[in-house]
């Protein structure tokens, strides 16, 4: 199966923080792939901007080295690489002063879409926005892309929104969450709203519960300082997992357009119940035979920050009242795996008798690493001797369905092209971000008030023991992390 490539118009993309890890690891490789696929026109320009004292040739060499490091054998052909590298330019810019801004102004064309990617810390968002305005770089066709964390609480998120709103309107601001760019996440909307099969069953009458798992096998790595301030709740639940929850629980929008979709997501966030203390489990990974503990990784032996969190969440609306949503995410767990599992209720009556072993129907949407979907259903086991039932998987792997040679685009590939097209459907709106923090803040404030320490758990496990009890109390079990 060959995907259809829809080219975008010529554009100028300025990447602030172009020498940083995110730009080298994700943004620039994503652009290279879109260029090699024919989606970016030859007239497009990518301009790196950072404080590093580089010239154009030095930046091009750095990007080429980044491709070797992060793309390896998966990089497109040498001819495409040479052509893409030739599109790159660079300017040394300081967000806190006027240094380099006049040079940047001369590189921006007046007759194309101009996008500015803020691949920097949130503390620089305001300064960059102000400088863009000061040097008359904001036009009706200007878009800015801002990375998370978008605030660390409701007050800071509001302040950031107000800062950006002083220079840009909401239609120009693209708050990026790369989870929404994943093919499987977008397929979740297609499965729900392009098929009549599931939507009649997609409610509390037929769904017993939903599990959302984002598990990482690695530790904090070099993000100790940030993670000690953020923790799993701020780093994952408030944004990535909240978005997954919204896509699962939202009502069908009247059309697949940005505000129609985001209006329905906002309704879900506003309908979330406050989370009781008994329905939250926090954890920290301990040292292993070949790995450091969380405290060692962040360099803070007394830290009360969680590397794992599990929650039971309720939604008070007509569709979902009474159906719990269980969320869990953590570092140093058994495997790297992200999935959404929708568990349906058992039939009200079994015609096969009580002695027949029963398995519940489950729809599993795998986000990583093996993207795809699985629906477990009951069938008759072949052979004579009565009605023996067994559950089997109707399995769809993207790699198998699309062919071994098919390239599943990275989330950044899709999202950056959406910025150029002016499509905000897969980006968060300002009121959506603030609503998520309004729900999250009281949860964090409660455990800060009680000063209860996170529960230790072994690296390579499925998390703290009390997370298992969170499900057992409801006579349910977590799905195995694998």
UniProtKB/TrEMBL annotation:
Keywords: Carbohydrate metabolism, Glucose metabolism, NADP, Oxidoreductase. The keyword Cell cycle does not apply. Residues 189-479 form the Glucose-6-phosphate dehydrogenase C-terminal domain. The keyword Protein transport does not apply. One of its GO terms (molecular function) is NADP binding. Residues 451-475 are annotated as: Disordered. Pathway: Carbohydrate degradation; pentose phosphate pathway; D-ribulose 5-phosphate from D-glucose 6-phosphate (oxidative stage): step 1/3. NADP(+) binds at residues 17-24, 51, 148. Substrate binds at residues 178, 182, 216, 235, 331. Pfam families: G6PD_C (PF02781), G6PD_N (PF00479). One of its GO terms (biological process) is pentose-phosphate shunt, oxidative branch. PROSITE patterns: G6P_DEHYDROGENASE. GO terms for cellular component: cytosol. SUPFAM superfamilies: Glyceraldehyde-3-phosphate dehydrogenase-like, C-terminal domain, NAD(P)-binding Rossmann-fold domains. The active site is at residue 240. Its EC number is 1.1.1.49. InterPro entries: G6P_DH, G6P_DH_AS, G6P_DH_C, G6P_DH_NAD-bd, NAD(P)-bd_dom_sf. It catalyses: D-glucose 6-phosphate + NADP(+) = 6-phospho-D-glucono-1,5-lactone + NADPH + H(+). Residues 14-187 form the Glucose-6-phosphate dehydrogenase NAD-binding domain. Catalyzes the oxidation of glucose 6-phosphate to 6-phosphogluconolactone. Belongs to the glucose-6-phosphate dehydrogenase family. HAMAP family: G6PD. This is Glucose-6-phosphate 1-dehydrogenase. It comes from Pararhodobacter oceanensis.
